[in-house]
Design a protein that fits this description.
23% strand; alpha+beta; 176 residues; 4 helices; 4-stranded mixed beta sheet
Length: 176
C-alpha cells in the first residue's frame, strides 16, 4: 500500500491558496478599488481620497473635501458614477473633519431639535434648528441639504468645517 507524500500535498495546497487569495486581492484592487477611487477623485470639491476599504457588503471611502464643497453633490456624484462598481454594497463615506469646539458646540446645541425632526420626518425643521443654534456665532455659516436618502448638514467658520450626514431611515438614526 502506498502512503501519500506529505510535502507535495502541502506545497500544492500552499500554491493553490496563494493563487486563490492573490487573484481575489488583484480583482478587488483592479475591478473595485481603483475605479471607485478614480470616480471619487473626479468629483468637484474632493481634494483627496484614500483607497476604498471593501468589507463584505460595505465599501468605505475616506475623502478630504475642499472648503466650498457641497456634501450632497459629492454623495450624489459618487453614488451615481460608482454604482456599477459597488453594485449592491452599501457605500459609506468618511469625510475628513477639520472641526473645532465652536462648531461642535453648535451641533450639540441643535441635536435635540434635529433628532426630533428626523424622528417625526419633519425635515423642514432642521435648517431652522441649525440657524437658531448658530445665531450667536456671526462667523459660522450653516448649510443644510437633503436628497432621497440623507440629510446633509455643513457647518463652516474661518478655521474649520464640520460635515454631518443623517440617514433618513429611522433604524439607522441611532448611529449618529
Amino acid at each position: 500500500m502506498m502512503r501519500p507524500r506529505v510535502i507535495p500535498i502541502v506545497i500544492t495546497a500552499a500554491i493553490s491558496a496563494g493563487v486563490l487569495f492573490g487573484g481575489w486581492a488583484i480583482y478587488n484592487q483592479v475591478a473595485l478599488a481603483a475605479p471607485l477611487e478614480q470616480v471619487a477623485n473626479n468629483v468637484k470639491g474632493v481634494i483627496a481620497s484614500n483607497k476604498p476599504v471593501i468589507d463584505g457588503d460595505q465599501i468605505t471611502l475616506s475623502l478630504e473635501l475642499a472648503d466650498d464643497a457641497s456634501l450632497r453633490d459629492v454623495y450624489e456624484h459618487i453614488e451615481a458614477n460608482g454604482k456599477k462598481v459597488f453594485d449592491e454594497r452599501q457605500l459609506v463615506l468618511n469625510i475628513k473633519q477639520s472641526t473645532d469646539k465652536e462648531l461642535d458646540d453648535i451641533w450639540f446645541a441643535a441635536m435635540f431639535d434635529i433628532a426630533e425632526a428626523m424622528e417625526n420626518k419633519t425635515y423642514s425643521g432642521i435648517p431652522a434648528a441649525m440657524d437658531k443654534a448658530a445665531a450667536a456665532n456671526k462667523d459660522v455659516e450653516v448649510t443644510t441639504e437633503m436628497d432621497d436618502v440623507n440629510v446633509y448638514v455643513t457647518l463652516r467658520n474661518m478655521d474649520a468645517v464640520k460635515y454631518v450626514v443623517l440617514p433618513r431611515t429611522s433604524a439607522q438614526l441611532e448611529a449618529w
